[in-house]
Amino acid sequence: MQSPFYPIGTPGVPWGEAEIAAWLARQRRRRSYADEVLTVVDRLRDRFDVVQYGQLDYAPDAYPLFALRSRGWRDDRPAALVTGGVHGYETSGVHGALRFADLHAADYAGRLDLMIVPCVSPWGYERIHRWNPRALDPNRSFRPGSPAPESAALMALVAPFATRVRVHIDLHETTDSDESEFRPALAARDGRPFTPGGIPDGFYLVDDTESPRPEFQAAVIRAVAEVTHIAPADAHGEIIGSPVVAPGVIRYALRSLGLCAGITDAPYRTTTEVYPDSPRATPEQCNAAQAAAVRAALDYALEH
């Protein structure tokens, strides 16, 4: 039997339009994309080409979508893609990407063309939510004909240079609210039982089941371990229900699941997962861990 505590829907019955509308009515803006993200993007305009690659129109709100592109972009140079905020509530993904852009991107000038997309899902950022207003998870929607405009816009941005992307790192978090809100909501939305799980304490990575790169993942883990702690396996040898294949590393089928990290054929791909609710990590440390992961990923790709 589905856990009865989620306040929307009928246990065992997937949501329809009425339930989605009831869920949407509960959402409230809790922070400002313009004040916290776009102001930082504006400060970086003297160092990057700022590209508006779309706009989300969720009446009464509209959200311009921006990417930071290396100056002197060249089609004969390998590219690196850095994405954050695919799940808008995962704060260090957004601010870790911006931190990397501000403090470290210049180190790669002339060696890699950078496309940094700091906040793929600004509606979710403002409401500290995983989904978009249609109760869709953008990070399960990266596929042709995507129903999620956030995902479709990013894929359209990347398509012209996808074949030369050498490394893609997608910045995420695993939070306590995954267990208290988002997983129960997902079960309710889909009419499935909710099975309680656990939240790993620490940083981990998601490699690609279909094209694993264990040495690459290990290099990123080593770099991040100098900034914050790495999540251990649980009593079953797993992290969030997936076998741990190396310290701090699990694997998903990135493309078949519609995950952001699967949108190119880059040989080096990973998804970071920071744990911001740990008593052993501060927000600053989480942002620094994301930036360290980006640097390690790019360095490895350049060296190999």
Automatic annotation (TrEMBL):
<feature type="domain" description="Peptidase M14">
    <location>
        <begin position="29"/>
        <end position="304"/>
    </location>
</feature>
<dbReference type="GO" id="GO:0004181">
    <property type="term" value="F:metallocarboxypeptidase activity"/>
</dbReference>
<dbReference type="GO" id="GO:0008270">
    <property type="term" value="F:zinc ion binding"/>
</dbReference>
<keyword id="KW-0378">Hydrolase</keyword>
<keyword id="KW-0479">Metal-binding</keyword>
<dbReference type="Pfam" id="PF24827">
    <property type="entry name" value="AstE_AspA_cat"/>
</dbReference>
<keyword id="KW-0862">Zinc</keyword>
<dbReference type="GO" id="GO:0006508">
    <property type="term" value="P:proteolysis"/>
</dbReference>
<comment type="similarity">
    <text>Belongs to the peptidase M14 family.</text>
</comment>
<feature type="active site" description="Proton donor/acceptor">
    <location>
        <position position="273"/>
    </location>
</feature>
<dbReference type="InterPro" id="IPR000834">
    <property type="entry name" value="Peptidase_M14"/>
</dbReference>
<dbReference type="GO" id="GO:0016788">
    <property type="term" value="F:hydrolase activity, acting on ester bonds"/>
</dbReference>
<protein>
    <recommendedName>
        <fullName>Peptidase M14 domain-containing protein</fullName>
    </recommendedName>
</protein>
<dbReference type="InterPro" id="IPR055438">
    <property type="entry name" value="AstE_AspA_cat"/>
</dbReference>
